[in-house]
């Protein structure tokens, strides 16, 4: 019959489309989900419905549901509401914090961090999240650029505060310490006042001045290449970050494990994403590889967050018979390497991994919703239509995009590394950094494809394969040029860490007198109980890396310096170079004649720098 033939024809067409475009339905679903969140945002904007309003609604509908598990304590949504009311009243009653002020939080991961943030939101104040690892000048810089009028610090950070206290008091800054009494003149205690404050709700008119364009929080960049910068997170932008978790597949039945710093956007999204779904957070003060899975079992965790090297740290722990005895079904984060991805799933079970790409201050988010190992997202015409972006050719030596004879940027071809840029528009704004117009402007690229257009410069080199999967290559500042070739530090580090004796590697380029570009160098940490096997490492890099990408120098360290979110610090290492007269760590030199990494003695160093030894 005609109907039968039509059905057969339709089936054949659908099968052909599926065969030719196997990811098309996933692409459509992802874009539709993003458009749905966009419509939700517009609806919220009409009523000025903030993440705080969502929290208060959850308190009404499920007051006794656990909100935060922390160590052996559990706090319900009702208790969180009451405690944040108390915190808000301390700020107001002190007379030092006014409605609309900014208050800096210098606090590690604990429930009180959340009560303070919620309390500040209830009185229409914004919060600046200071990295609790910063000290001295960096601490003062971070505080000052937020424009905060007050600082709240954890008791264990009092020494760090006292170091900069004269400068703070000179600026007439109010300093609170989270303790029952203060031991220092000029510092106000907080906990005693909070215990005595009323837990009654705060009147809504205190925050009536807020709009979706008002700053909710300030979150700082990691500062791997200089002093941290404070990114503005408006109430509108905050919703966009919150919905990353729902786009990843989290639902109202989940329990999420947050062990990343709350001062960082990923950790904070764990809290706010939980509020959006009305779910429970298992909060840990600090990531611990040895306690990770025990915590997951203890709190019945179903969703975990990761960043940087966390997954590799977990894979490096001793194997246990109960490695797959847990309820975790979803891992959301960024920065997992392909080899670690495979190992993690093989060892810990069928955990769905959602790799996300995005900078706190950025205006583009990519997500690997297909589960393609190693990819950070997919390139689809639908996504580009609603959120225009491109990979453009980049000159590593000059440190700028390549432009054609008309002065416009050139799109990179499939399989060719290119700088990821995203169009700045009303739909995809770039809010920049607080009180730093120069750094804000540096992140903008103008006249990219036509006169007058403006794009956000991610500073990241990407590559799109034939199947339209997007892969991270390297940071622009991290990629260096040697022997006429571009060397991607992340790729080299991935290869080096596959050597048996090496646990961790940080790759960077160092200047060598008389040589163009920079020679590769790697700071490495060895696996527990293993010595450096120089011949094996040489053989490994020779087999897996082209000659120009092989590190010429190795530096053996007990541990590698990282930021609070596990990003390797390269600036100091690059400046120190490879001089054995100034570096106490063991140094090795790639000797192609000996087929080995040999000790880098002062004599070898002098021969290399004088040009006697050619590299």
UniProtKB/TrEMBL annotation:
Membrane topology of this protein: Multi-pass membrane protein
Location of the protein in the cell: Cell membrane
Domain AMP-binding enzyme C-terminal, first and last residues per copy: 492-567
Transmembrane keyword on record: yes
Domain of life (superkingdom): Eukaryota
Coarse class of the protein's main subcellular location: membrane
Example of a GO biological process term: long-chain fatty acid import into cell
InterPro entries: AMP-bd_C, AMP-bd_C_sf, AMP-binding_CS, AMP-dep_synth/lig_dom, ANL_N_sf
GO CC terms: endoplasmic reticulum membrane; plasma membrane
EC number: 6.2.1.3
Enzyme class label: ligase
Statement: the UniProt record of this protein carries the keyword Cell division: no
The name this protein goes by in its record: long-chain-fatty-acid--CoA ligase
Source organism of this protein record: Mastacembelus armatus (zig-zag eel)
